[in-house]
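Listing S7. Sequence submitted for prediction.
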Amino acid sequence: MRDDLIVVDRLTKRYGQFPALLDVNLRIKQGEFLALLGPSGCGKTTLLRTIAGFVDPTEGEILIEGTPMSAVPPNRRPVNTVFQHYALFPHMTVAENIAFGPRRKRQAKAEIAGMVEDALEMVGMGGYGDRRPGELSGGQQQRIALARAIINRPKVLLLDEPLGALDLKLRKRMQIELKRLHEQLGMTFVFVTHDQEEALVMADRIAVMEQGRLSQLGTGEEIYRQPNSRYVADFIGEANLLDCTPTASGGVTLTATGQPLPYSAAGATEPTLMIRPECIELGAGGEGAVTISGTVRDRMFLGASVRLMVVLAEGVEIAAQPHAVADVERLEPGQSISLHWRTEDGRILPA
C-alpha cells in the first residue's frame, strides 16, 4: 500500500466572511493521480494553491512527507505547478524556458542540457528546443509547460486546469498523454478540473468538492455507481434524479406517480431515486426489475446509441438509453411505452 505523501488536515480558508474552504481533510498517496473536481467557486483551485503555498490557510495544516508546510515558502516546497495559460517566457527559447528552474538552482550547464533534452523527449517535443513559444501551437506550449514542471522531478505535480484552453479534440489527446506521463514518471499528480470526463479518464481517485467542502472521495467507478448525494450524482455523468416520498413502513414511492418502489428510504426525509440512462431498457421487466410506464416525448440519435425522453406523470421526464437500438428507432413521439431497470441499478440518495 502506498504511503500518504500529502495530508490535508482540517483545512479552512476564509476571505473575510466568505469560506473558500471549510474543514477539508484529505490524504493523497505517493504516486497517485488525484483529481479535484467541481464547478467554479467550489474551492478546488484554492485547495491546489494552498498545497502549492500560494495561499495561506486560515486554519488547519498541510503536510508533505510528514513535514508541516506552514513555514515553507512555495519555492522550497517539493512541488511544481502547471497553470492553464502555460506562463512561458516569450523572449526565451523552449530550451531556455525548461532550463529556467535548474539554472536558478545553479546546476552545471552540461547537466542542465541533458536534463532539458530528456524532458523534451518525455513530452514528445524532441528537436523543438531552439523554437520560441510564439512559434508553437497551444498543445505544444502545454507540453513545454509540463516539461518545465517535471525537469527537477518534484515529489508532486500540481495541475490547475491545464487543458482548459485547448480545443476538444486536442484536449482528449492530451488527457491520454498526461495519463501516460504520470505512469512513466511515477510522481504524484494533483489535477484540478471542472470536467467530469477528464477526471474519469485520468484519475486514480476523484475528490468531488462543493462550496468549499469535500463531498465525496473515491475511484471514478465508486463515485459514478455509488454517489453519496444528489449533488455528486448530478455532477458525475448523467443521471435521472426522481423525487420520492417515504412511506410509514420505511419504503418509498415515486412522487410523480405514487408507484411503490423496492427501495428503503434509509432515514431520508426527501429521498431521491438515481438511475443512469444506460441502465434503462425497453419493455416490462421480470422478477428483480422495476417497471414504469410513460409516453415518448422525443427520440435523439446519438450515433452509437439512441436516447429517449419519456414523460411519466405531472410532466416528470426520464431519459433512457436502451441497448436495443433497432427497437428504439421504431418508437414515435406520443407512443405509450414501458421501461424497466434492475433493482440494484437504482440508488436512493438523501436530498
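Caption to Listing S7: primary sequence and predicted C-alpha cells for the chain studied. The mean pLDDT is 91. The chain has nine helices and 20 strands.
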